[in-house]
Amino acid sequence: xxxxxxxxxxxxxxxxxxxxxxxxxxxxxxxxxxxxxxxxxxxxxxxxxxxxxxxxxxxxxxxxxxxxxxxxxxxxxxxxxxxxxxxxxxxxxxxxxxxxxxxxxxxxxxxxxxxxxxxxxxxxxxxxxxxxxxxxxxxxxxxxxxxxxxxxxxxxxxxxxxxxxxxxxxxxxxxxxxxxxxxxxxxxxxxxxxxxxxxxxxxxxxxxxxxxxxxxxxxxxxxxxxxxxxxxxxxxxxxxxxxxxxxxxxxxxxxxxxxxxxxxxxxxxxxxxxxxxxxxxxxxxxxx
Length: 288
Ligand code: MBD
Ligand code: FE
Hints:
The protein is of the alpha/beta class. The protein has a single domain (7-288), classed as Aromatic compound dioxygenase (Protocatechuate 3,4-Dioxygenase, subunit A). The chain is 30% helix and 22% strand. The chain is built from seven helices and 14 strands. Helix 4 packs antiparallel against helix 7 (210-218). The structure holds 3-methylcatechol and fe (iii) ion (FE). The site of fe (iii) ion has 5 residues, from strand 9.
């Protein structure tokens, strides 16, 4: 590899130290109060989880050497601030599957570790915050929010966040504007929105942290396909947390976080004015 290739690689690699510590801090402010989960429930779930691990140890004949590396690794995950990343990449998709099994409206998927609440409020027709020379392919992302019975939902909130053209998230990578590619868009009288942004790039799990250590040790790849995160909500309706992907995009079939669903694929088309791409995607919210 040449020097130049190497520096390009470094630029494109998120660093665990930048993203992990902030993901941990942001998560800690989410659960302010104490747990209200009953003792019986903790007993039931914790006992089953521990037993599932016992079964793996027996089934795979786990050795003391492997057990000690597990301990060392788990200690390091905490030091790196990567528990939010680890849990959201490898467990959350099943929690989401259970949570949203009974929904009739739009499909959800995982939230991941990089949501920031209280992003700037924006009108139905808007442009997300970006830099003057923002690299990438412009995307006009438009659609309508409706109830299950088809009623348009005005004043719904389309809370959107995504990475930039290098796969970096604002507030989790250094040097980016605070609210880059983050905003809460309010739908108009017909429940519609039209958001001008830039298509995000695939996201690579930081390779220099403990999640990266696991990925390398196991011979996996470290990538999520390019995606747009959303939380869509309206009064008297259930909030849906979801992501949208790009049909035919790299890693769409091999997402390390297993969070792609066929219903969540966008197929943007070139705009008539030559200014990048456009795509329409509607959301349907279940009643509260
Ligand atoms: C991401 O951008 C993401 O969405 C998830 C789920 C995990 C890591 C990075
Ligand atoms: Fe993401």
